[in-house]
């Protein structure tokens, strides 16, 4: 059983694919050349998932089920950004984390994120059934 206070950190250097501008799909879409919120959320989820590794059994993984995130500062290309997740509580099947992301200039985002443990084969089968529904 995981205990409140458990922490994990993951870091990355911002790449071209992580930029908000990489999400533009049409000529009329224009986004800045800064770290995108989706890429930052992915980093924050990775920190939470890393914290949960010891709770996983054979064939299990953790998935995100709820996020409340505030992305307040921009981060430029090639800058190192880190996310630190702290387990705040376990509530039934949900593992709740407080997460902070920072670059060398300080905090860029905060989030409250919940994860659940699932069987990896079963969740992929459920997704396939939804494809053909």
Descriptive overview:
By secondary structure, the protein is of the alpha+beta class. It has one domain (7-132): Hotdog Thioesterase (Thiol Ester Dehydrase, Chain A), CATH 3.10.129. It has helices spanning 37-52, 120-132; strands at residues 7-13, 60-71, 80-91, 94-103, 106-119. The protein has a five-stranded antiparallel sheet with strand order 1-3-4-5-2. Strand 4 and strand 5 form a beta hairpin. The longest helix has 16 residues, at 37-52. The model has no long low-confidence stretch (mean pLDDT 97).
Provide a concise account of the structure shown:
This is Fluoroacetyl-CoA thioesterase. The protein has 133 residues and is of the alpha+beta class. The protein has two helices and five strands.
The main β sheet shows up as: 5 strands, antiparallel
Secondary structure tally, helices: 2
By CATH, the topology is Thiol Ester Dehydrase, Chain A
Number of strands: 5
In N-to-C order, the SSE pattern is EHEEEEH
Write out the strand line-up for the largest beta sheet, numbering strands in chain order. Answer: 1-3-4-5-2
CATH architecture name = Roll
The termini sit apart by 37 Å
* Rg from alpha-carbon coordinates: 16 Å
